[in-house]
Amino acid sequence: MNRRNLLKILATASPLLFNSSYNKLDEFFYNELPDQDTQLNKLKILPRGLIPGKSKVAITATSSPMSAYEMKDALNFLKQENITYEIGDTVKNNNSSYRYLSASDDDRAAEFMKYIVDDTVDCILCGRGGYGVLRILEKLDFATIRKNPKIIIGFSDVTALLTPIFEHTGLVTFHGPVAVSTFNNFTQEHFKKVLFSNNNFEPIITQEPNAIVINEGNAKGVLKGGNLRMIVSTLGTPYEPNFDNSILFLEDVSEPAYKVDRMLSQLLISGKLKNCKGIIFGQFDNLNSRQAFHPGYSYTIREVIEQLYSKLNIPIMLGMPFGHVKDKLTLPLGILTEINTNNRSITILERSVI
Q: Considering the entire predicted model, what is its pTM?
């Protein structure tokens, strides 16, 4: 493919394209590179924001199954905001045939792509995490996703969908609630600040007074990250992330300290953090717990983080509200963000929708 054809594809990809300061195109677009040895600025694509009375959300189970009852908070929130919704067959027709999956790999990928090309859909809300996204990645058409930008949101297992889509297409994706999440006031308000259209954007600041400072400092970078297990699972594959010049956020749940130790060590020795600008850890449910481990007890997760990551010369905080918690931030992957350990805050500095 020559440069002219590449630019034609990018020009039709979105109503709004933003230049960034990076110049290695292949970190976004693996499959369609210029024939010549040229350097082009990366482009990030912003999806359309949600507009009450006009927008539509599609709910699809890209991973594990769930019941309609589990979605009651999400559906009530959408009704309250006058956002219409459509529930996919992977949600409505789930049964035990596929065990811990909502449907076959082909059906889950096909339904996701169906909503990608549906012009009436503005947002794809993943039903839940669980298991299974890794099995559908090779069935997705990233060029088609790039040409049909829309909000894609979820967390946990869905990290393995959000990260490759941003890395391969430049489309900003969103780590936030799934359809079975508890949409409490905190979660609703942050969801609206990030995802609803707003012509008068102001930086979105979140302070967490109880956050633990591992390394002091201030830093700005492109926000990336998600569930620790899923990020580590993509290392060494075509879907692995690039954390250069990033503010990295990581969280997990129900993992003992020795497993967190293994995953954080793997991430560290992979070299992915060499040019990372800052790290934000979520609220681990067993942060200070010790488990019996012969001949005594294990380290705590906090001790593991301090041992492995305090030696990095970047600001690091622990205990921000995202992922497997009730009060849930919506975090846009690909957007300039600041970490400030002095006031224990993270600030989203750019709008992430148009």
A: 0.89
